[in-house]
Write a structure and sequence with these properties.
twelve-stranded antiparallel beta sheet, two-stranded antiparallel sheet, globular, about 190 residues, alpha+beta, 3 helices, outer membrane lipoprotein receptor (LolB), chain A
């Protein structure tokens, strides 16, 4: 099956998933100073539209404070790219090549032509503004932070994060979360 057929099939599946779940948009509050990041694991679908071109894929993402492992897969489950982030930097393995950089944004900008804001995506995916970074709420509840316009939708029946939409300068990234496999709760630091 050709790449265009995969993308078309993935787009149809993505639209179907969005239409079958009841979602609610919620404002994205700023995280309190005494809250620490906590690990989570999630899978779902990813759609990216940049300069008139669209791409659709599945993903598995394991996050813990200070590190991330993001695997991008075809609709049938074959891993096409793997992104690892830790204190030592970022490694992207795709097309049989390994690329390294100090941070995800620099690496994805150099290889894809657009930055993936992975360092703050963990906060936004949980419906929160990233701590310590200036932000604004728009009248429609979307968050503006680091040049991104962000909308988080939750499942109306479980209040679990369901969909995240990011927009910036001709780039749109949509993540539809299908399965949270670990806690996405944040823990307050007690004095």
């Amino acid at each position: 099956m050709s790449l265009s057929r995969w993308l078309l099939t993935g787009s149809v599946l993505l639209l179907a998933a969005c239409a079958t779940t009841s979602e609610v948009a919620e404002p994205m509050p700023v995280v309190a100073a005494n809250v620490v990041d906590s690990p989570f694991s999630v899978s779902g679908r990813l759609a990216v539209s940049y300069q008139g071109k669209g791409h659709v894929a599945n993903f598995d993402w394991q996050h813990s404070p200070g590190s991330d492992q993001l695997n991008v897969k075809t609709p049938i489950g074959t891993t096409v790219a793997s992104l690892s982030r830790d204190a030592g930097g970022v490694v992207l393995v795709a097309d049989g090549q390994e690329r390294r950089a100090a941070d995800v944004e620099t690496l994805t900008e150099a290889t894809l032509g657009w930055p993936l804001p992975l360092s703050n995506l963990a906060w936004w995916a949980r419906g929160l503004a990233a701590p310590g970074i200036p932000s604004e709420q728009s009248a429609d509840g979307r968050l503006q932070q680091q040049g991104w316009l962000i909308r988080n939708l939750k499942d109306a029946t479980t209040s679990q994060p369901r969909r995240l939409e990011l927009e910036r300068e001709g780039l749109t990234i949509r993540l539809v979360f299908s399965e949270w496999r670990a806690s996405n709760a944040l823990t307050p630091i007690l004095p």
